[in-house]
Write the C-alpha cells for this entry.
Amino acid sequence: MSNPYQDAGVNVESGYKISKFVKQHTNNNGNIGNFGGIYEIPEGYQHPVLVSSDDGVGTKLLLTNQAKKWDTIGIDCVAMCVNDILSQGATPQYFLDYISTGKVDQKVEEILKGVIAGCNLANANLIGGETAEMPGVYGKNDYDIAGFSVGICEKDDLLQKENLKANDVLIGLKSSGIHSNGYSLVRKIFFEDHDFTMENILPEAPKKTLGEMLLTPTRIYVQDIVPLLDERLIKGISHITGGGFYENIPRMLPDDLAAEINVDIWPELEIFNILQKYGQLKLDDMYHIFNMGIGMVLAVDKSKEIEVLDLLNENQTVAYTIGELVPKTKASLVLKGEKL
C-alpha cells in the first residue's frame, strides 16, 4: 500500500532513522525524540541568568555541496552560537540544531556528525533538534542549518561595558581561518571572478586544496575562555564575526572608550592574503569583512595581562596582546601598524 505522505515526497521513516543516529552517537540520549529538550540547571548558582544565541553558517554551506563534504559544517553552527554566549560571560550548557532539506539522505548524518563534534568541543549537551524534509522548498541536494544554544552564569558575572576602562589590555585569540562569515564574497572571488574549483591547489598555499582552506571549521573557544571566566580574569569579549573588526569590537565598548589595535602583532593566515590578492580588496576593507586571523578579542585589566597570556598559551601560542583601550576622541576602533 502506498503512503500518501511519502508519495508527496516526505519519508517519515527517515526522521526516525535520524533520531536513532543521534541517540547512538551522544551520551545524553534520553532527550532525543521527546517533544521538548529537558535540561536541569546545575546546582550552586545563587542568582543564575540564562544567555541564549541562535545562528546559522551563511553561504558557507553551499561549499559543502560543492566539495561533497558535510561533516564539519555542524561544528561551524555550534561555534557561531556558543562563541556568542561566551562573549556575554556565560558558559554554554546545551544546544539544539535545525536542519531543513529537500531530501533526508546521507548528508544529514554527516552534518550531524559535525554538530555532535562541535557540542563535544563546547562541552554542551545536544538535547534535541529538528530535521525537516521540505520538497518544493528545497531541491533534493539543498539544505540549511541553524542552531540554538543556552549558557548560564551568575548575574553579577555578566560582562558589562561600564566595567571597562582606559589602559585595559586587548588580547587576541587566533582564528582557524575565515570561520563562517563573508562567504558570499569568498564564493564570488574564487568561483565567479576566477574559475577555481574546490580541488585546486593555489601556488600561495601548496599544502592544502582550496576546499580544505575554505571548509576549515570555525574555532570553538569554550575550553580557552571558560577557565578565565571562572577566575574572573576577563572584563569584555568580542566575537569577530560578520563585519570584522570594525563592527564587532565596538560592540563590547562603552561610548567613551576606543580600541587601539596594532595589526602587525599576530601571524598572518595565508587565506586572507589570498583573498585580498584574488579579490583585489583594499586592506581596510578586509578588516571590515573578515576576522583577519583573530577570532576573539578579550579585554583584561593590565595587571592580569601576563597571567591571562600564560593560561591561554600554556600548550601552544594562541593568544597575543594586540592593543589597548584608550579614551575615545572620534572613532571606536583605531587600527595602526606598518601593514596599513
User: Anything to note?
Assistant: Strands lie at 48-56, 91-101, 125-133, 143-154, 169-174, 236-239, 257-262, 294-300, 319-327, 333-336.
